[in-house]
Specification:
With 261 residues, the chain is of the alpha/beta class. The chain has ten helices and eight strands.
Length: 261
Amino acid sequence: MQRTVDHTSEQLAVRGIQVNLFRGGSGRPLLFLHGAGGAGVWLPFHGLLAQRFDVLAPDHPGFGLSGELEHIESLDDLVYHYLALLEQLGIDEVDVVGTSLGGWLAAELAVHSPRLVRRLVLLNAVGLDIWEAPVKDLFGMSPEETVAALFADPATAASLFPAEPDLDFIMGLYREKISFARLAWNPYCCNPKLESRLYRVTAKTLVVWGDEDFLVPVVHGERYAERIADARLVTMPGVAHAPFLEDAEATAKLIVDFLEA
């Protein structure tokens, strides 16, 4: 797969919120929902998917190049935000790929509107309330602990951040951390009702997990695969919480093969 695909970046007004939308490729629409980090950039991973699909990679409100959260106070509100965005774009059926926080959002979207989501891919998704294996507290970690939890290879993390971050970069990270807290602080990174509602998901589902994820235990992936009908779990060796960053080509191939099967 080649990585270079032309893409656009445009600002859309969605219910009074300015939304930055990266878009590239052609074919069936594929909505990529980012996690608490990774907004504001068209990634090599997006380019790989765009070889086969019309990839839509918006920044959530409060993240990246999008405007502030405004009236969005919870993940439920974010679901309705994306329903409005897809309606505005004239999309009535879409494949959805979500990672971490975006995976939780993708699952909630498929629960809310089963007919909208054709196929669903969850990458190391949070969202489930599993008391015996909770998601680690990102807010209580040092930067070094955060990198160790998110990446199996520290070099991947180093490639994502400037050697000498300027004030704008630091303030951007602070803004996104506040937005993340607003969406997922209490209860932390989960909806206690989500697991009991996963029966509503009708999309064929692929759950992908890095086997070195020390942030979200793999039991969360196993539970998603158990509770969603016609779902399967694939674990990827040698990667942690962000397989699409640590091994973009292998992750993209898994997703493309699944969506085109």
